[in-house]
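job 3f2a | input accepted
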Amino acid sequence: MNTFKQLLKLPQTKAGIVTALVFQLVFFFVWLTAYDGVQERITELKVALINEDEQAGQMVAEQIEQNLPLTIDTSMSEDEATEALNNREIQMIVHIPDNFTDMLRSDEKAEITYSINQASATVGKQALEQIATKFTTTVNEQVAKQQLVMGGEQLATQLEESGLPEQAIATIGEELTTSLETVDVAPIQANINKINDTEGFAATMIPMMLVLASFVGSMTMNMQIQIADITLNRQGFKKWNVFWSRQLLNVIVSAGLAFLTYGLIALFDIQVTLPFWTVWFYQFLVFLSFLIVSQVFLILFGPAGMMGNIVLLSMQLVTSGVIVPIAMLSTFYQTVSSLLPATYAADGYFTVIFGGTGVTQEFMPLILIMAVALAICIVRIALKKQAPVATTK
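job 3f2a | predicted structure (393 res):
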């Protein structure tokens, strides 16, 4: 029992207990507040509606605008919508072809195509697919009902004008009613077009896994480097020499991790959609941004800054868009998302693994985030006094 008491007195033990408590509190608070009301905000998902049929297609298009619980944009051309979908500016394209009415009048199935970008958050993809299927079922019911009513009314009129005996009309009417009941009640089919798709469940987990592993690794590394930083300062090394040596180490480690990650992706036979050096440089920027951002709280507050990194970890997992689309988050969390590197890391990894328009658009935000984080660190180091040299007796 004495040993247990001594263990509890150690500052490292107290810090460990506090860290465990903070992890629990932060994750509960951030995740539950961020995902509260997500289902209601599904209306924020953007859809481009392209209708090329001016008859039955127009009727369906109007129903889509009125009944789909999404933000509908009818102003885009097909090429513009495809580009926007690849850039994740919209989440789905609904396309009604120019032969839609002709297909309804023939024995063939009319088709509505729903294009969904697979290089996006899982929750959003699944929700859109369910909405597309449900809407098509509803439209089928309405169209089939209208066809039956119109067909029945037309036949009834023709029979009345035929001059046949009432008994013959009644018999023919019964037979025609039986025939109408065999009419296809699902004349329209949904074509779910999954663009930028990839095979294997493991590949779909890469964006979230890499974001999580990269930032946790950065947090852990910086915690150890912070201890080394304090030690070197107490040994008489100049604070600026220690600081810039730390940044050099960040660059070297980031370069190595980028090579290692690409090698692991190749080892597990996960296909990438971009050239090697593009992927390597992008991963280098991601790792470097995580290392620089995760050192900010430690440089500002010392080891206690680890609590700030715990908050950052939770915030980034929630707002990066790997689980729930950013458009479905509240305004506050959308703003937070735009300020954190994980958002641009996730976007890039979706493109690397699934496909899209490239990752170069992610470079500048990552560089700007690093520049701001580095500037904060430089100001803090400038204000910091040189640590006194430790003496040994």
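job 3f2a | Confidence is low (pLDDT under 50) at residues 150-156.
job 3f2a | closed
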